[in-house]
Amino acid sequence: MRFRPDLGWADVTPRADFINRRQLMSGAAALAGIGLGLPAAALDAAPSRYSTDEEKNTLEQISGYCNFYEFGTGKEDPARNAGQMTTDPWSVKIDGLVEKPGTYDLADLVKGQPLEERIYRLRCVEAWSMVVPWIGFQLSGLLDRVGVKPSAKYVAFETLYRPDEMPGTRRPVIPWPYVEGLRLDEAMNPLTILATGLYGEELPNPNGAPVRLVVPWKYGFKSIKSIVRITLVDEQPPATWNIVNPREYGFYSNVNPEVDHPRWSQASERRVGGGFFAAKIPTQKFNGYGEYVAGLYDGMDLTKHF
Ligand code: MTE
What we know:
Elements: H1 9-12, H2 15-25, H3 59-64, H4 77-81, E1 91-96, E2 102-105, H5 106-110, E3 116-123, E4 128-138, H6 139-146, E5 154-159, E6 179-183, H7 184-188, E7 193-198, E8 201-202, E9 212-214, E10 227-233, H8 240-244, E11 268-271, E12 281-282, H9 290-293
Parallel strand pairs: 1-10, 4-11
Antiparallel strand pairs: 1-2, 3-4, 4-7, 5-6, 5-10, 7-8, 7-9, 11-12
Bound molecules: ligand MTE.
Ligand MTE is lined by residues 66-70, 122, 124, 159, 178, 207-208, 220-221, 223-226.
């Protein structure tokens, strides 16, 4: 089904189904798979201590205002075009410096990983932000399962590249496929998740279905969508925006109000949906997650490693 950002879940979900799901939600700690039969969304995910209690953006805002250049560079292009992307079957190749390399079917990838709701702030490098109720699991759980070799220092990620379903990739706007990377300790941090759902449902295509990275203390472009490959490596891997313009986009890209983008200030942000006249919000260092992640960068000059 093509995604319609003007519709809420209650509109696109048959009512019987919807009610059924609400009833399921009252079941104690029940996790249920929907749609493909995957445990893609947790209908009763436990609240997480890492969640913010700030007001959430609506599903319409989260899935209607996106950056997903594979489907076009306009904010509404992903909602218009990402419905073309086939997400079933889906597999993720895990290779490089791991004990158990292989091509994992999505259901297998998610298997055994405790799904949680994580309500995170998302701060885009373009100085807008949202509050998003992701459903996902810690990347650390998956990395533990595949067994990271001691020589691994970084994790590299790659997005699906399928020009016949991704109209944006038919032009060389940025190099394809989209790639990103994290230092291993960043990848293992409990805040770093692989998201498979949103608002208790499967992840909508515009947001990077069926599985995308979420690293809430970094600018949004580090949170790579629709992942098909995860590679453990011993050197800093390439990252798309850093390749495109290393002067403007560093490898680390931690949210930092003290380091401006060469073309605009990063001191404040506009919350999507706040309205044209809403006051800008001051941007927080590490997007407000410093208590969990500041230690990762002890001794580093964050103006140099921006
Ligand atoms: N991943 C891929 N593959 N392609 C993209 O264009 N855009 C990034 C990131 N992940 C992008 C991507 C940017 S710039 C941001 S801000 C976030 O996705 C936006 O996520 P959202 O659209 O779900 O809010």
